[in-house]
Write a structure and sequence with these properties.
2 domains; binds 5'-O-[(L-methionyl)-sulphamoyl]adenosine; alpha/beta; six-stranded parallel beta sheet; elongated; Rossmann fold; Isoleucyl-tRNA Synthetase, Domain 1
């Protein structure tokens, strides 16, 4: 029976156009989802939109729209982005759906039942843009305006009746959990920040608002709407048909294997979410991975700096596989990383066009000309050939381990290295000089190199699904055969069918100057 694997992205605020940061979280999660499928897992990959709260209500008002209508429109742009990014999400959840409000209501009831909710009054700082409460020591003054030190967004003073969640009661339980589960929060540097924050002591958390109405009403007091983060985090359960804990989806996929999020929302996922789940008597997700920021020309993307990169435009100009590969290669997953169009072009030219793309093209056209367009059978391989083939197979456990630890950059580095080695092997072996002199040797070399191309393409498939599929189609590998298992099997190339034609995989990008 195949192992179940549940992976999620953050659900995005449909408050404006999606930008590269949103695309990044989704692409990263998609790569893990695709790899797990290659490994034979039964994967559930969830993404969606986070539609309640003051931020969205205000944005809708600014646009003179009813909030639901406003969300319908912008949520659709996020949904269509999943297609443009070539995501393999099995579901797209919207927090305005009934399945979600049912699930949030049940969580609320569970927290009431466990005695972790009480009614009081909140007075303090609130950032609408972050939908977050901040302590005095978390804000500073800039140009006469109070802002959050971490996000830089402006905060306002709020005083209103509010239900509170007894977060303070969960300090020890949370710290114990972090200690017992080394990899619950990754990367470890981020985990240390969270541990320090919790060690300082936790205040009870305001979990309802009364000064606006766009949200899920508190079941027993309709004057209040539930705090948007308690609402939003529950989406991970709503998609599994919670509260029906007997439902196959819930039974198969909860607890989630990993929540992929940006570092900006770590506190919500690594402190609030587990505490809510403890109180609701539900199992905790296995892992929370907080990736860094994508910087545009060394700076955080923001409307005021005018350095926002529009993923849709970049994809139109350069292609989706190219963007997916570049983001993963350029940015070390746990850290902030700067991207630029100049580096994207260089990456396409050097890594993709000159290396992997060129290798495939050269080998296939050579086989077309010299071997009746059929892959030579596995005969007369020398030790060096076998060593090359075996090297990838032997490294499969290491590659799987890299993925399981979210070491995406190490993974890519290894696979790109296989591709460099394959190129070098092809050049050094000079099959073109052997056609008359030693055709048997020429065939052995061609067999070996196609085996390498197949395996490298399978490994690159989660990152560049379109290009690698074209290559694998060329050698008549069916979708079913695109798997890690296929790499481990011996002698399973198709020697009987002719190779299909392969058009240019990656066009070289001319420099403007
Ligand atoms: N709605 C909340 C998440 C709720 S999850 C239960 C939210 N939405 S968001 O639209 O503001 O941002 C979602 C995510 O987009 C961030 O956590 C992060 O993963 C990603 N990014 C947004 N800007 C980013 C960069 N510049 N760089 C990388 N990712 C960033 O927060």
């Amino acid at each position: 029976m195949s192992k179940n694997f549940y992976i999620t992205t953050p659900i995005y605020y449909p408050s404006g156009k999606p930008h590269m940061g949103h695309a990044y979280s989704s692409i990263v999660a998609d790569i893990f989802a695709r790899f797990k499928r290659l490994e034979g897992c039964n994967v559930l990959f969830l993404t969606g939109t986070d539609e309640h709260g003051q931020k969205i209500q205000k944005e809708a008002e600014k646009n003179n729209k009813d909030p639901k209508k406003f969300c319908d429109e912008i949520s659709e742009t996020f949904r269509s982005l999943t297609k443009i990014l070539n995501l393999t999400n099995n579901d797209f959840i919207r927090t305005t759906e009934i399945r979600h409000s049912k699930s949030v209501n049940e969580i609320w009831k569970r927290l009431i039942k466990s005695g972790d909710i009480y009614l009081d009054k909140y007075s303090g700082w609130y950032s609408v843009s972050d939908e977050a409460y901040y302590d005095k020591d978390e804000i500073e003054e800039q140009n006469g305006k109070k802002i959050s030190k971490t996000s830089g967004s402006s905060v306002e003073w709020v005083e209103e009746e509010s239900y509170f969640f007894k977060l303070s009661a969960f300090q020890k339980k949370l710290l114990d959990h972090y200690k017992k589960n080394e990899d619950f929060i990754l990367p470890h540097s981020r985990k240390n920040e969270v541990v320090k924050f919790v060690e300082k002591g936790l205040k009870d958390l305001s979990i309802s608002r009364t000064s606006f109405s766009w949200g899920i009403p508190v079941p027993e007091n309709k004057k209040h709407v539930i705090y948007v983060w308690l609402d939003a985090l529950t989406n991970y359960l709503s998609a599994l048909n919670f509260p029906n804990t007997k439902d196959e989806k819930y039974k198969s996929f909860w607890p989630a294997d990993v929540h992929i999020i940006g570092k900006d929302i770590l506190r919500f996922h690594a402190v609030y979410w587990p505490a809510f789940l403890f109180a609701a008597n539900l199992p905790l997700p296995k892992k929370i991975f907080g990736h860094g920021w994508i910087l545009s020309n060394e700076k955080k993307m923001s409307k005021s700096l005018g350095n926002i990169l529009d993923p849709i435009q970049v994809i139109k100009d350069y292609g989706i596989d190219q963007l997916r590969y570049y983001l993963i290669k350029e940015v070390s997953l746990g850290n902030d990383g700067s991207i630029s169009m100049e580096n994207l072009k260089n990456c396409i030219n050097n890594d993709l066009a000159n290396n992997y793309g060129n290798l495939c093209q050269r080998v296939f056209s050579f086989i077309k000309k010299n071997c009746d367009n059929k892959i030579p059978a596995r005969n007369n391989l020398k030790d060096g050939d076998i060593k090359l083939i075996e090297n990838i197979k032997e490294n499969i456990p290491k590659l799987i381990d890299h993925i399981n630890k979210q070491n995406l950059n190490e993974y890519v580095k290894m696979v790109v290295n296989f591709s460099f080695e394959a190129n070098k092997y092809f050049n050094d072996s000079e099959p073109w000089a052997l056609k008359k002199k030693d055709p048997k040797r020429m065939h052995a070399i061609l067999h070996t190199i196609v085996e390498q191309i197949k395996n490298i393409s399978i490994l690159l498939n989660p990152i560049m699904p379109i290009a690698t599929k074209k290559v694998l189609d060329t050698i008549n590998l069916s979708d079913k055969e695109i798997s890690i298992n296929n790499i481990l099997k011996d002698n399973n190339l198709d020697y009987n069918s002719e190779l299909k034609d392969l058009n240019i995989l990656f066009k070289k990008i001319e420099n403007d100057n």
